[in-house]
Every structure is written in C-alpha cells, then in structure tokens.
C-alpha cells in the first residue's frame, strides 16, 4: 500500500513540475540586420508559452515554453545554427529553487497523506 501511495505522489509531483514552470532561455544565433531581428521576434512570439523576448546580441526568452522546441523551430525557419546558452546568474538559483520546491511538495503531499492514513488506521484499531 505504501509503495502504491509513493508511486501516486511521485506521479502527481512530476505532472505538477511539468506544468507551466516559468523559465528563462538564452539563445545564441546570428543577428545580421533589422530584418533578421524582426523575423526572430515573429517566430518566437508564435511559440506557445512565450511571455517576454529581449534581443541584444543574444535572444532572451521568458515564459513556460519548450526551449528545445523553440530553438529547433528557429533553426529550421532561419536556416542557421541556434545554440541554447545557460544564463550565468540564474543557473545556481534555479537549481536550488527547484530542489526546494520538490522538498516542499513531497513533504507536503506525504505529510497530509501519512497523517490521513494514521487517522484511518487509529480509528480502525
């Protein structure tokens, strides 16, 4: 019973994390002229989940979009290489905040479930 409970909790946790996690992606690609910049903006704005785009030597995109799919779309449409660059200042903070989120979610979900099970078990005894 406990294994099934843990399996359900982990499955729910995975789906919660997969849903709408806002992130920042930095893409490196050749910006030749104003026309290139406008085309990039047009392509990026059509992508699902994009909330903000900033272009200054690099293309920075914020939102809940699929970064790999966005980079692949740009590569196909622009016919040039697109590299995903990790933002330096966000790298450490993002990793620690995600692990903190996991810890809170797991302890919160398990705490409620375990206390509920203990209450049921106590009432049966």
UniProtKB/TrEMBL annotation:
Protein's name in the database: HMA domain-containing protein
Domain (HMA) ranges: 22-82
Keyword presence, Cytoplasm: no
Keyword flag Ubl conjugation: no
Native source species: Salix brachista
Pfam families: HMA (PF00403)
Gene3D superfamilies: 3.30.70.100
Recorded coiled-coil stretches: none
Entry's transmembrane regions: 98-121
Keywords of the record: Membrane, Transmembrane, Transmembrane helix
CDD domains linked to this entry: HMA
Lineage: Eukaryota, Viridiplantae, Streptophyta, Embryophyta, Tracheophyta
InterPro entries registered for this protein in UniProt: HIPP01/3/5/6, HMA_dom, HMA_dom_sf
